[in-house]
Design a protein that fits this description.
alpha+beta; 15 strands; eight-stranded mixed β-sheet; five-stranded mixed β-sheet
Length: 294
């Protein structure tokens, strides 16, 4: 337990060091470059990542690292750090104060697979630090947090995101967005998967789904939601890990209902309302059926 407590403290420390650099970068001019047509990176991303890697090099020199900007390196211990120094770079570059630092620690198990045991998600603009330790729960600024207990889709507020390559991908998430937006209180798209998952963990959102996240986008948030009492799977309901092609994270009472809607997407056109009655309260389903028959 002490080892995990120490890892959590260091993950939080690294995230806050990087966060202080991000706050300074936000208040000054930051050079913006393009990694893809709409995928951006700034000098602040690089500076924040360097600060985290410097701490790892000093205190965990034998550990493996997987970082968004500098890639991966092997280690000689069973520990691996996964780092996203600035999740929400497009927001940052457009002066939208919604982004975070993500740091996760993993331990290699007896089968040679890495399992996330500690995570830190830090929002430097709101000074909110979300921490999770495997088997010990999740916290926000030191206070315990839990996912929401919403049971009905119509009462739930969801969040999602869209991949940088969506123009060229069949799984562009547009049909999923349209269908879930019709049977819930609404769906938000805020531009930081790390904060989306943190907001699910603390109950601000009731669920989050997205295709094709990278390990550094989801490692911290997967543990955070799980330790806050939520359920994390892939969008087809199968087990999820940091290399999963899709993710659905939600409270346990709403998770299966979101899965049902996602499973129905392939049966209908993007903007279809067909079949939505079964996901709605009876009075709304009856009203929708009346519209269809009129």
């Amino acid at each position: 337990m002490t080892e995990l407590n120490s890892l959590a403290a260091d993950a939080a420390h690294m995230a806050k060091i990087a966060g202080s650099l991000i706050r300074k970068g936000y208040d000054s001019t930051s050079t913006v470059n393009q990694k893809g047509a709409i995928d951006l990176v700034t000098d602040t991303d690089h500076a924040a990542e360097r600060s985290i890697l410097a701490y790892i090099d000093k205190h965990y020199a034998d550990s493996a690292v997987l970082a968004e900007e500098s890639g991966s390196r092997e280690g000689t211990s069973t520990l691996r750090w996964i780092v996203d120094p600035l999740d929400g770079t497009v927001n940052f570059a457009h002066r939208i104060p919604h982004f975070c630092v993500l740091v996760a620690a993993q331990i290699e198990n007896s089968l040679g697979a890495f399992e996330t045991v500690v995570s830190a998600t830090y929002d430097p603009m709101r000074d909110e630090i979300f921490l999770a330790e495997r088997g010990q729960g999740a916290t926000l600024n030191g206070e315990g947090i839990n996912v929401s207990g919403k049971e009905r889709l119509i009462d739930s507020l969801l969040t999602t995101g869209f991949g940088y390559e969506r123009l060229f991908k069949a799984n562009d998430n547009h049909a999923e967005y349209c269908r879930l937006n019709l049977v819930t209180r609404g769906v938000r798209r805020l531009g930081s998967a790390g904060l989306d998952l943190a907001y699910v963990a603390v109950g601000r959102f009731d669920g989050f789904w997205e295709y094709e996240l990278n390990p550094w986008d989801q490692a911290a948030g997967q543990l955070l939601v799980s330790e806050a009492g939520g359920l994390v799977t892939q969008m087809d309901g199968s087990l999820a890990d940091v290399d999963s092609n899709s993710i659905l994270a939600a409270g346990t009472k709403i998770h299966s209902k979101i899965l049902d809607v996602l499973a129905s997407v392939s049966e209908h056109s993007v903007n279809s309302r067909d079949g939505l009655e079964r996901f709605l309260p009876k009075e709304l389903g009856d009203q929708l059926s009346g519209l269809d028959s009129s």
